[in-house]
Amino acid sequence: MNKITDNQTIAYEKAKNGEKLFLTKLTLQDIEDIMKLQDKVSQALPNKEIYVCSSKEEFEEAIRNIGCLLGYKTEDQKLVALGTYISYGHNPHNYGYDLEFTEEELLTVGQIESTIVVPEYRGNGLQKKLCEALERIAREEQKKYIMATVSPMNPYSLNNFLALGYINKKEKLKYGGLRRYILCKKLV
18 by DSSP, 3-state: which? Predict the structure, then answer.
């Protein structure tokens, strides 16, 4: 895959209902749709501890400076899923700190910060496909590790990450006292 450019359709999938879904690099122009998607997903969760919402500013910072967002859109441009990739370096939000990585190793970590799919599009493998695309970005950046966090109460996400080769390295309280598994996959 070549370097992904803004608003470029990277791939498309057919949903179980036959609808085409287009994987696209999201931009600041998509920010309102991103926030609406996150609100819809968050409101649909039976347990609000499963997912911690990101602020508009956090998404904007990822798009502008420290990562990127990929999303699946319908033919009529409705955003139905998104994945956030971030490269934090020495920022304390780097999950490498949770695993006591050295200062040098921290620079080799890419993170899947979030993956969300609206309820009516779950079951199409979109989270897994988003993670695979975000891993390709980490490889393009020559990252050695890709990391993520998952709530122990979210077996679907956990199983998707484990199926992709992530290893549960540690359980830790994060995000204001919520239990999370710190997952890590070696890319090289």
Answer: coil
